[in-house]
């Protein structure tokens, strides 16, 4: 948690100097929020990233999809996959794996199979 707070302070300093963080900075913050269980904070950072005009990469989308599935929000995770596609980023095997596992873990085996068929 201490390093996350330090990282957040660095981002604040970046803003104070008149610069904007790049996609790598946002992705790192999102990853660490998800890793620590701060999914809502990660989603707010994702929204800030979009507002800055930055496009998330596979890593960022997969981290969010995985975290949403682990939180039992598989429908929202699938919506993120749709956003990913509309942003021009085709889901990769890891993207589908997160979603298939999410539906399988939530007892929705048929939905997991339908996602598998989309691959």
UniProtKB/TrEMBL annotation:
The PPR repeat units are at 22-56, 57-91, 92-119
InterPro entries, per the entry: PPR-containing_protein (IPR050667), PPR_rpt (IPR002885), TPR-like_helical_dom_sf (IPR011990)
Q: Cite the entry's keywords alphabetically.
A: Repeat
Q: Name one Pfam family in it.
A: PPR_1
Which family does this protein fall into?
Answer: Belongs to the PPR family. P subfamily.
Name the NCBIfam families for this protein.
PPR
What is the name of the protein in this document?
Pentatricopeptide repeat-containing protein
Q: What species was this sequence derived from? A: Noccaea caerulescens (Alpine penny-cress)
Taxonomy of the source species: Eukaryota, Viridiplantae, Streptophyta, Embryophyta, Tracheophyta
């Amino acid at each position: 948690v201490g390093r996350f707070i330090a990282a957040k302070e660095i981002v604040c300093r970046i803003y104070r100097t008149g610069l904007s963080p790049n996609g790598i900075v946002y992705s790192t913050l999102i990853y660490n929020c998800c890793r620590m269980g701060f999914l809502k904070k990660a989603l707010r950072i994702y929204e800030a990233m979009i507002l800055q005009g930055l496009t998330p990469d596979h890593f960022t989308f997969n981290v969010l999809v995985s975290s949403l599935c682990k939180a039992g929000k598989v429908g929202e995770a699938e919506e993120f996959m749709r956003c990913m596609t509309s942003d021009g980023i085709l889901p990769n095997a890891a993207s589908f794996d997160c979603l298939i596992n999410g539906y399988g873990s939530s007892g929705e085996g048929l939905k997991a199979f339908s996602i598998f068929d989309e691959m």
